[in-house]
Amino acid sequence: KLFFTDYGNAAKVERCDMDGMNRTWIVDSKIEQPTALALDLINKYVYWLDIYLESVEVVDYQGRRRQTITKGRQIRHLCGLAVFENYLYTINSDNLSILQINRYNGTDVQALARLDNAKEIRVYQKRTQAAVRSHACEVDPYGMPGGCSHICLLSSSYKARTCRCRTGFILGSDGRSCK
């Protein structure tokens, strides 16, 4: 799944399949300017910053069990969001420090380090990298991912895929080749 925020006409947090299909709103009320998003891939939670409402909140992948982690004026100066173990990590855009926030109760906020001009933060950990034996976008014997001539996108599961074309090309009737 792909998770993303939007604060155009109607602010929301959404999810869809990797090919853009099955788009679903998971948060669409009491939300104004969601500017950063982080996923807890193990427990299946979505965290986001709302700089207008000055809050950090969380829901499960279906948009249920919504909770406010922390609220206050300091939120409007945060950008980027990552989750690792018991903490959320974000950047304070005023002083460019990395902040660590307890993700269960919003307390225990600590400045860890300062950076020059940081706007985003990511945490990489081996446990969160899914091990898949095979998937629909694997390279075929002709060197084409999923048998697609240009772009292969996983669909509703790792066993399904959708072929797409680069700009200026259209997908052929076979659903795989681009012309």
Automatic annotation (TrEMBL):
Superkingdom, taxonomy of origin: Eukaryota
PROSITE patterns referenced in this protein's UniProt entry, alphabetically: LDLRB (PS51120)
A Pfam short name: Ldl_recept_b
Molecular function GO labels: Wnt receptor activity; Wnt-protein binding
Biological process (GO), any one: canonical Wnt signaling pathway
Organism from which the protein derives: Gymnorhina tibicen
Protein name from the UniProt record: LRP1B protein
InterPro entries: 6-blade_b-propeller_TolB-like (IPR011042), Cueball_EGF_LRP_Nidogen (IPR050778), LDLR_classB_rpt (IPR000033)
Cellular component per GO, a single term: plasma membrane
Xref: PANTHER family: EGF-LIKE DOMAIN-CONTAINING PROTEIN, VITELLOGENIN RECEPTOR-LIKE PROTEIN-RELATED-RELATED
LDL-receptor class B repeat windows: 1-43
